[in-house]
Specification:
single chain; alpha/beta; Aspartate Aminotransferase, domain 1; Aspartate Aminotransferase, domain 2; 2 domains; seven-stranded mixed beta sheet; four-stranded antiparallel beta sheet; 14 helices; 37% helix; 12% strand; binds pyridoxal-5'-phosphate
């Protein structure tokens, strides 16, 4: 047993009474009523939702917000300029709230594009390979799309993926590539690396990287840094501006409960946003002062990456969630996330089995609210049993992961207790 787990076991009672006590004094308890209750696909019975890392639980207010869109468009295009929601024309109001969640200035973020589209836009802007420096650094397990995007970008510049895409693998006997492994790789090979392109929180292991230290080291070595924050936004504390991250991309449909596949987000640090030489693809919404027909001068800031009109429906669907996060604040979300995950890790120690390995780091600063187990046998059967017999909704990803998001705004300590109890029975 590691020192951290020994400490957790010594300080966290693993009883239902403890869970109920924590729930009774939980300052975020009321937020749960803002979310829809998920239903079992066949019986329609309520389920307990632990799958926000796949699709974030929707907010009840989003339904009404979206419905109102169809009332408003009865006034046609004029609805965009009139009424209390004419702000969608200038979604600054949402950018302000989003900026607080990612730790940025409002002009460093936009709600536009999608996670993967934005990854392409950002590599377009920041990957400027030379014969001496042409590597894109990734870390395994890599989101498949990010590997493909890195491969395509090196090939577009005439380099080969075998030589110019470096995907770090866990060291012998380890499940994860640690922040220290990444720092080591940067120390050794940094002078050949053009762009470091990593997940802030890994999509299958739940590991959170130390974005600040990685960015600092990468900059010392002359590399640019792009983070995919699809699993990090609304999940871990972020301070992108202060940490000097060059750029980041994400979606809103996980921990921020936006609509599935909806508009994503993009961050470009102020120092680049004001750099006229940064390559940005053209689009009419990105046209800044000095643009003429056929001559594109991008707007300053992240706005220079907003090519097209915003999707009003997406903004309406997302607004209640950003308001809730704004009201409660990321500090409270993170504090409860650490409480829930610590409790779960303690409960998992009571499962007497060789069949599971906890993959997510025990150190709370290296995880968000997702805990991932490596399960080598009957993975799908276990997830199906949890769903059908216990009405617990979690998911599984190849090659061997079962993932649970203990999302602080709608998960109770008692939910976590019941989850562990069910796991004990199915394993
Ligand atoms: C790390 C990561 N990147 C990107 C995406 C999705 O990209 P997109 O929103 O463009 O479909 C996901 C979705 O699960 C993800 O986990």
């Amino acid at each position: 047993m590691s020192i951290i787990i020994a400490f957790i076991m010594a300080t966290t009672p693993i009883t239902q009474d403890y869970a109920l006590e924590q729930d009774a004094k939980d300052p975020l308890a009321e937020a749960r009523s803002e979310y829809v209750v998920t239903k079992h696909l066949e019986s329609g019975e309520p389920t307990t939702y632990f799958s926000d890392m796949s699709l974030g639980l929707a907010q009840i207010a989003s339904k009404e917000s979206v419905r109102r869109y169809f009332d408003e468009v009865e006034y046609g295009h004029r609805s965009r300029f009139n009424g209390d929601r004419a702000w969608v024309k200038h979604p600054q109001k949402l950018h302000d709230k989003l900026a607080k969640i990612v730790g940025a200035r409002a002009d460093e973020v936009i709600i536009a594009g999608t996670t993967q589209t934005n990854a392409n836009l950002l590599l377009n802007a920041f990957y400027k390979p030379t014969p001496e420096r042409n590597i894109i650094l990734l870390s395994a397990p890599t989101f498949s799309g990010n590997s493909s995007i890195a491969n395509e970008h090196v090939q577009m510049h005439g380099y080969s993926e075998t030589e110019s895409v470096l995907t770090l693998q866990p060291k012998e006997g380890k499940e994860l590539v640690s922040t220290n492994d990444i720092l080591e790789a940067l120390e050794e090979r940094g002078s050949r690396i053009s762009v470091v392109f990593l997940d802030g929180v890994n999509y299958v292991t739940g590991q959170a990287l130390d974005i600040k230290r990685i960015t600092q080291k990468a900059h010392e070595k002359g590399c640019k840094v792009i983070f995919d924050l699809a699993q990090a936004v609304g999940n871990i504390p972020l301070n992108l501006h202060e940490w000097n991250v060059d750029a980041a991309n994400w979606c809103h449909y996980k921990f921020l409960s936006g609509p599935n596949g909806g508009t994503g987000g993009l961050f470009v640090h102020q120092r680049h946003g004001e750099d006229p030489d940064l390559l940005r693809p053209a689009g009419w919404k990105a046209e800044g002062p000095g643009s003429t027909r056929g001559h594109f001068v991008p707007k300053a800031g992240a706005a220079g990456f907003q090519l097209s009109s915003s999707s009003t429906l997406d903004l309406y669907a997302l607004e209640p969630s950003l308001e809730l996060f704004d009201k409660v604040g990321m500090d409270a979300v993170v504090e409860k996330s650490r409480g829930l995950t610590t409790f779960f890790l303690a409960l998992l120690q009571t499962i007497d089995t060789e069949k599971i390995t906890i993959v997510t780091p025990e150190d709370p600063s290296q995880r968000g609210c997702m805990i991932s187990l490596k399960v080598t046998e009957n993975r799908q059967e276990i997830v199906d049993r949890l769903y059908n017999e216990y009405h617990i909704d979690c998911d599984t990803r190849d090659p061997h992961y079962i993932r649970f998001a203990l999302t602080p705004l709608h998960t109770s300590y008692n939910d976590v207790y019941n989850l562990a109890k069910a796991l004990k029975e199915v394993f």
